[in-house]
Amino acid sequence: MTTQELIKSESEHIMQTYGRFPVALERGSGAKLYSPEGREYIDFTAGIGVNSMGYANEKWVAAVTEQAGKLAHTSNLFYTEPCIRLAETLTARTGLSRVFFCNSGAEANEGMIKLARKYSYDKYGRGRATIITLHNSFHGRTITTLKATGQAHFHDYFFPFTEGFRYAMANSMESLHAAYSRNVCAVMLEPIQGEGGVCMIDPDYVRELREFCDERDLLLMFDEVQTGIGRTGKLFAYEHFGVTPDAVSFAKGIGGGLPIGGFICPEKTAEVLGKGQHGTTFGGNPVACAGACAVLEQLDDALLAEVTEKGNYMRSVISGWNLDCVSDVRGTGLMTGVQLRSAEPGAVAAKCVENGLLMLTAGSDVLRMLPPLVITRDELDQGLEILKSTLEAI
User: Fold this and answer.
1) Is the confidence at residue 203, as pLDDT, over 90?
2) What are 321-332's pLDDT values in tens digits?
3) Helix-strand-coil percent breakdown of the chain, rounded to 5?
């Protein structure tokens, strides 16, 4: 089918819940994607951070294909090797104790919310179940994770929302103290607020927050759905802060293109959830786990160093343009936000797509870039040149 045929059929048969660009994608290689007609695009989105190893990655394709030919799925009433091998790898590389696997970031964050409330219930009984999150945060689109999200416009339409959340300003211990009361059991935050505009969290604030939580026996939980699995140049972004989380969620990039999520716990919280207290049909799926193992196998120290270097290069190049329409360039690793002063980011992203560069937005005034971690310098330069010419034409 042609691009126009696909667009027409989609409009007739799929619920219109997405503001899609008028682009159909048929195949990809590295950090490049192609339409049915052969139009080439440089990808600065990685499927919103999912395609960490790019497209048609040989090791990932081989691992997924081999596992699909052996065992595509079985229930969690039985043991499978890819799931266990993936858990072994994650615990070994983080120093944490146990993993729960699910299918998405929202599910992973829901699981952490349940973990926090169960931890508190076991020690203190009912009534200590409120979780503090940060203004401008984003934690998912389920009823509960929408309420956990600290952006008011997400709290429309779907009433009633789950109770038990309060919000504090990022990087403000004063605001956190104001939100705290004796019925709080946990604090949950993103190390970088991705959907909120690639907003940075101050390391000193996180270290103070760790002490605050320890003094009150609150769980400190990191939502690393977008920042985890190498995106910031570390396996997990919490490593930049020098603290250990009481739980950390992951999804997106670990699957390399297949749906998988989960959360990891240290010894403190590893035994909180027992048999029958949490579960999911597809969590730990053998094919998804085989793909994730292939991702982590390639995500070694050398590639993590490259992620840091390439991200610094991107931001240095963009800052060097000195364009009037750009007010700030920020990020860590291959997670970059370009804050615009005088242009609507959705319109700029659409023009980038027209010019052959796939681009994301975040917040109300930010272009967001999440290229595949394996993007080459040549692909980066091609994409940056398109971005520059697009911004210069504003």
Assistant:
1) yes
2) 999 999 999 999
3) 40, 20, 40
Quick one: which H or E segment has residue 354? helix 345-354
Asked whether 314 and 329 are in contact (CB, 8 A), the reply is no
Indicate the pLDDT class of residue 344, thresholds 50, 70 and 90.
very high
Of 32, 252, 310, 351, catalytic? 252
- What is the pairing mode between strands 184-189 and 130-134? parallel
Query: How many other CB atoms are found less than 10 A from the CB of residue 235?
Result: 20
Tell me, yes or no, if 263 is annotated catalytic.
no
φ, ψ (nearest 5 deg) of residue 258: -105, 150
Axis-axis angle for helices 377-392, 345-354 (nearest 10): 120
Kindly provide the residue ranges of all beta strands, DSSP E only, lying in the chain, ordered along the sequence: 27-29, 32-34, 40-43, 98-102, 130-134, 165-168, 184-189, 192-193, 199-200, 219-223, 247-250, 261-265, 326-332, 335-340, 357-358, 360-362, 366-369
The Cα–Cα gap between 332 and 227 comes to: 9
Q: What is the DSSP-derived secondary structure letter of residue 153?
A: G
| Of 115, 106, 72, the residue nearest 284 (C-alpha) | 72
Residue 223: helix, strand or coil by DSSP?
Answer: strand
Task: Work out the angle at residue 301's Cα, subtended by the Cα atoms of residues 298 and 303, and round it to the nearest 5 degrees.
Answer: 55
Quote the radius of gyration of the chain (alpha carbons, Å).
21
Catalytic residue list contains 32: no
pLDDT for 130-156, tens place per residue? Answer: 999 999 999 999 999 999 999 999 999
- DSSP β-ladder status, 219-223 and 199-200: unpaired
CA 195, 198, 199, 203 torsion-angle sign = positive
Task: Indicate which residue of 44, 100, 138, 241 is catalytic.
Answer: 138
223 tagged catalytic: yes
Paired with 31 in beta bridges are none
Q: Is the pLDDT of residue 342 over 90?
A: no
Q: How far apart are CA 101 and CA 99, in angstroms?
A: 6
Length of the chain in terms of residues written = 394
Among residues of the chain, what percentage have pLDDT more than 90? 99
Phi-psi region of 344 (alpha: psi -120 to 50; beta: other; left: phi over 0): beta
What average pLDDT does this structure show over 356-370? Answer: 97
Catalytic residue (one of 100, 147, 222, 223): 223
In what helix (H) or strand (E) does residue 279 lie, and over which residues does it extend?
none
